[in-house]
Write a structure and sequence with these properties.
The structure is a homodimer of 308-residue chains. Chain A is α+β, with helices and mostly antiparallel strands and 308 residues long. Chain A has a single domain (8-300), classed as S-adenosylmethionine decarboxylase, CATH 3.60.90.10. Chain A is built from seven helices and 17 strands. An eight-stranded antiparallel sheet of chain A has the order 2-3-4-5-1-6-8-7, with helices on one face. In chain A, strand 10 (195-200) and strand 11 form a beta hairpin. The radius of gyration of chain A is 18 Å and the shape is globular. Chain A starts with 7 loop residues before the first strand and ends with a strand. The mean pLDDT of chain A is 95. At the A-B interface, strand 7, strand 15, strand 16 and strand 17 of A face strand 7, strand 15, strand 16 and strand 17 of B. Strand 7 (125-130) of chain A pairs antiparallel with strand 17 (305-307) of chain B.
Chain lengths: 308, 308
Amino acid sequence: MFFEGSEKKVEVVTASAAGSLRELGREYWSGVVATANAEILTTLSNDDCDAYLLSESSLFVWKDRFLMLTCGTTTLIDAFLHFLDSINEDHLLFASYQRKNEYMSHLQVTSWEEDIERLKARIPGKAFRLGNMDSHHNYIFHMDRPYAPAMDDKTSELLMYHIKGESAEYLRSEKQTIEGIRKLLRLDEILPGFALSDWLFEPFGYSLNAIKGDRYATFHITPQEDSSYVSFETNLDVQDNHVLEKLLEALKPGSWDLIGFNSPAPLRENGEFSSMTECQLSLKCGYDMSFNHYQHKAHCKVEAEELV
Amino acid sequence: MFFEGSEKKVEVVTASAAGSLRELGREYWSGVVATANAEILTTLSNDDCDAYLLSESSLFVWKDRFLMLTCGTTTLIDAFLHFLDSINEDHLLFASYQRKNEYMSHLQVTSWEEDIERLKARIPGKAFRLGNMDSHHNYIFHMDRPYAPAMDDKTSELLMYHIKGESAEYLRSEKQTIEGIRKLLRLDEILPGFALSDWLFEPFGYSLNAIKGDRYATFHITPQEDSSYVSFETNLDVQDNHVLEKLLEALKPGSWDLIGFNSPAPLRENGEFSSMTECQLSLKCGYDMSFNHYQHKAHCKVEAEELV
């Protein structure tokens, strides 16, 4: 029942000379997605964005930007290289590729090092690891080119591990429904007015894309006991509306990571959880990146796991 | 400069009907070691034990017991299976195989799952993971046969990560000497009266075997910045003599694990470090196993690492 929920991520910003990325059309993006061994399940569009829900995570396409996340054993690096084949490199304003620590990295098709070797052969870039190798960490590669992000270009990623309590039990149960999960995640409070597109997998697992104007949010839930993982990513300001606190309260993770791009980490250590890793880096491509790993204090008592 | 210091470990106890394991001789054990892709560097013997220092870690052979540790990308599982080929299974009183989280598990020749599949095809056994998959943890396989360890059969493993400060700098420097390292580890205090055999690797790295009667201790130091690791293992009672406290003071690890077999974990959380994982398990082969992972509070501030 093991499934690697942790996502790889690509983000690209293009110059107007490249034309609209949305106009490349669903067939083009479907081909990009297929290169990573995933497929498009649903499409949600508004004036600004096409949001594709994938069999493994999500793709968001704006006129001048796209963002793709894939989990499991998908090969996002292949999709990224495939995209690079179809664009004039001079039209790239910004490009980044991220991977994080996986539960079982040896089951992945390629390693971070292999991915970066292939990327560096194609575009000039820099690569970093934020966080220690033997604990939670995030790898990032970015194109080595100056870029000036807009004021409202802020990204927050909340990655939750070892979810516990009633919500976790519900998400692993047969009785779960899309309506029930939307309620559990308090979507009406944290994403008011967003258009939603979601999917319930068999026997469990849930994905959601949400858009409103040029704002987006996405959830991916891998509830499997022992390797549970829930990711939330958005370009909303997460300091509004106590979004992070609400999600931590709803899902009760044993540990979690908060990654920000031009978005400060507003969670401060308190009596309930400890800050395990704090790492910040000003990337030359214009983003201040932060990586913070937290652990709930009650999470230290662990039962031994009998293996098959 | 990356080197995987973290060891795999085999321990076997045999019945008297199997004859003396020491009498199998150096040539036999040299063959076992070669199967794991290691070689014997030094031999130290007393009335009870032959202690072999290996190119990757250590082998201790008593009349009715052996213990082998290997690090790097050695294939200890092959050595274990090679040994099993040469013994009547009925003569095995106890057998265990351990692996822990590695810094870069995808660089290993085999995974834990593959090792266990091969072992289970040979001897009946049970397998467990102590600690969460996404944090420090220890895997153990043991033969499924009741065994009654002697009263003084206690093992403690102290595995230290991210060593810091003067000692760490010394261990990474060109000026280090065997005498200097022995002093740094305070061997005269923690291993009084032990016979020692040690080895300084080029450009750095250090291994030590120590024996006194049927007691043993072994150190392996991989000082490489960013992936530093120091292991200490012994069948001494580590509550005598404040051994653990002395080593933590000397090496200043950012985090460490303490694994005990019929040996309680005497380190309790204090103002300086936090207990991150606590896991205990009564193995049906007669040992109470404990796994404890600790982190120093100052270790949470981490610099981003630029990767080549």
